[in-house]
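Revision sheet: structure tokens.
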Amino acid sequence: MTPPPRPALRDIDVIAPNFKRRLSGVTATIVRLVPVQSAQIAIAATGPVLPDDVPQVALSALPFMSRRGPSGWRVWHARRNVEMIGGLVLRYLLGKKLRLLFTSASQRQQSGLTRWLIRRMDAVVATSDKTARYLQVPAQVIMHGIDIHTFSPSLDRPALRRKLGVADDGPVLGCYGRIRAQKGTDAYVDAMIALLYKHPTATALVMGRATAEHRAFEDDLRARIDTAGLSDRLRFMPEVPPEAMADWYRILDVYVAPQRWEGFGLTPIEAMACGCPVVATRVGAFEALVRDGETGLLVDADDAGALERAADAILSDPQRLQDWSVAARQHVEARFSIETEAATLVTLYRDLLSRP
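Predicted:
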């Protein structure tokens, strides 16, 4: 497929920088949002590694862009410290007429440098109310959304399970993401070991990548599963590309988000969009994403027993499981579409561009 032509920088009103080479949540946000926003406003991403289908301009061209944008000003939408610094350099050292916008997903006290940078922004967005409480400046809360057309329930879950090589003789649970202590993968494994003894036809999946420094952590989890004699039912699955993830949510009865810490966390709404109730810890934005007792259950972080009891409560009540599956999809459709997030940000961009 031929990539779309690159937009001319002189025609761009909004620039979304992505200065990190390694894939991260911020990178994924830019890759998801910019193509949707480009239908509403002249926006382009910039950075060293971006997919061809994302409207983008060359990073090397930024110092040479015209001082003014087509609307007089341009918006520079930063999501990291280094990108805020880049915007300040372009505005104050190179004289570019930029309105500086920063989105924060952090839920901890910022460093002195971060606070200093944020105070120099023209506007600030927080991805949740909890994040906004850590900021020392006014912030507009705009929560992340997802493509609810890509993430949707399966029309034939048994057939999809067979295609993916997952048993269809009982319920299936899953936990997807980086394999490390911060993500609570060990709490999930301990919870599933207990749960699988109670539900002898159930299967639990782990999918994600353990980087080199967390390889021993993963090895220990595999050893625990082997010792419990559950290697055939508590399975580590090979990581798949982002475009293949929806199918792995569609085959689940329950998704578990066991994080000990999280900035925002998209996996619960991706799972719910696929008609899957969620058991999640009270971290990140999960309390705002999951309706406790309606689309899933919330438990305290670092409590494997609570994770197991919550998952057991859902699996043990088939009618509740069915009702929450329907409610989960409806909840995401109503509140967490990528179109809603994109449109709200575009409204903010236009406000910044129109300021005298």
